[in-house]
Amino acid sequence: METLTSYVLGEWRAGDGAATALFNPTTEETIGQVRSGGYDPARVLAFARETGGTALRAMTFGERAAALKALSKAIYSKRDELLDLSIRAAGTTRGDAKFDIDGATGTLAAYAAYGEALGSRRWLVDGDGVQLGRTPRFWGEHVLVPRLGAAFHVNAFNFPAWNMLEKAACALLAGTPVIEKPGTPTAMVAWRIAQIIAESGVLPKGAYQLVVGSASAFLDHLNSQDSIAFTGSSATAALLRGHANVVRNNVRVNLEADSLNAAVLGPDVEIGAESFGLFRSNVTLDMTQKTGQKCTAVRRILVPKDRIADVRDELAAILADTRVGDPALNETRMGPLASKQQLDDVRAGIARLEKECDVATGGSATAVGGAKAIQQKGYFVAPTLCVARDGRASVVHDHEVFGPVATIVPYSGDASEAASLVALGGGGLVASVYSDDPAWTQSLVVGIAPWSGRVWIGSEKLADQGTAPGTVLPASIHGGPGRAGGGEELGGLRGLEFYLQRTALQGYQGFVQSVFAPKA
Are residues 225 and 331 in the same domain? Predict the structure, then answer.
């Protein structure tokens, strides 16, 4: 049985707190344990700022990019090992494990390419310069320079590889050292990746550290140059944002929290049309991929009232036919939830939905419902599709069930009504729209954009061309307003801005422009 350790101050340190067991979600076998502590958080932060940060800021964007590229290759070289570990420690199918591991190495490679294009620069110019006085001699430029703190990253259990490394890629390229805290149930995957990073010797000392178990003590020692990036529940996000020291020092905070993502079927889309096929395949994929444990998974499916029965039957048939079971088996299409706590939470959430919705397939009564598997052990739940009796039922729009669960929400077909229903979710990471009517689509997109970090627009022109809405790509922003946390990550070079200070420079044009914003 493995005991996970923290990688801090340039070495691996055992924790001194009480042990928390780690389980194989498929068999419920104990496979490891985590012990918190074993280090001084203030010293860990100082090591990051003074040793890691100093070394990273001395490097150019191009040099940092080369390090990211080397990290991507080092982790990818252990791909098969990591896929097997993810199946055992996180309950993922091999396909879902690839989604996580390849997403991580792909994002590192993408940010390596962004940094390579920046070359020998050590700061960024933000926009065009501007004349500030009667003549151009008095000139203004905005620049983005590395901050002098550390990034404390609190990552989610559902993507132990991708969630950690997409945050790290942006921070490291920006010149900011990272302290990564993985979600405990699946921390074994993040821990093994941390070992690969340490063994590679690619990064300067102090640029990357990993702490396992509870790490809330770090919040007491953050200063105004530090930052927090968090992925997880809205309740924990509120505690982080409201922490006294975080508030007192105006520590930068980026949050990604709950998200009741919506898929909207347009009234023009007929059953059997290419656009409907795209809708059907995307909805069922995003419900069952990673056992629905994706912050971008669809939770609400808006369907015109006159199509409810047909859409329900089409989706329910696919979901009921999903083979649930041991993720190590090739025929399995959906594995268990990541932990017993997740299983309890999902079953309780389904039970809440059942009070105001009709269940088309699945449900809270049995572990796998109508799915083609029977499991005696493991944290299994059936793909569950509900149909809301009232499209505005609060339970549908207020509570995210973080599993393979979604609810069909009836609407009239009017774009403004659909937008108002999407808005009831209070803000989401992604909404998807399926229609071949440009005017209707434009009206809906404009209506839901203020509530959405990303809007995915599906039509017959896009069939078989794009990734599903639940896939996060490094070129587009990831985050959302309101309930989703109000944060923003990735988006190409936009992802670096959280770790950089925007400063306005004012002075003689000949100096300011030639030194800080030279023309290519």
Answer: no
Per-residue pLDDT at 32: 96
Residues 302 and 425 in one domain: yes
pLDDT tens digits for 329-341?
999 999 999 999 9
Helix axes 79-90, 61-76, angle to 10 degrees: 70
Q: For residue 357, indicate whether it is catalytic.
A: no
Q: Is-catalytic flag, 386?
A: no
Same domain, 185 and 281: no
Residues 500, 410 share a domain = no
* pLDDT > 60? residue 9: yes
Residue ranges making up the domain that contains 465: 261-474
Q: Within this chain, do residues 221 and 282 fall inside the same structural domain, yes or no? A: no
- Under a CB-based contact definition with an 8 Å cutoff, are residues 75 and 198 in contact? no
| From 256, 400, 488, 489, active-site residue | 256
Q: What is the 3-state secondary structure (H, E, C) of 72-97?
A: HHHHHCCHHHHHHHHHHHHCCCHHHH
Catalytic residue (choose from 170, 295, 357, 386): 295
pTM score, two decimals? 0.94
Residue whose C-alpha is closest to residue 153's, from 291, 261, 253? 253
Q: Is 401 exposed, middle or buried (0-12, 13-18, 19+ CB in 10 A)?
A: buried
Q: What is the CATH number of the domain that holds 216?
A: 3.40.605.10
The string of pLDDT tens digits covering residues 347-376 is 999 999 999 999 999 997 655 543 444 456
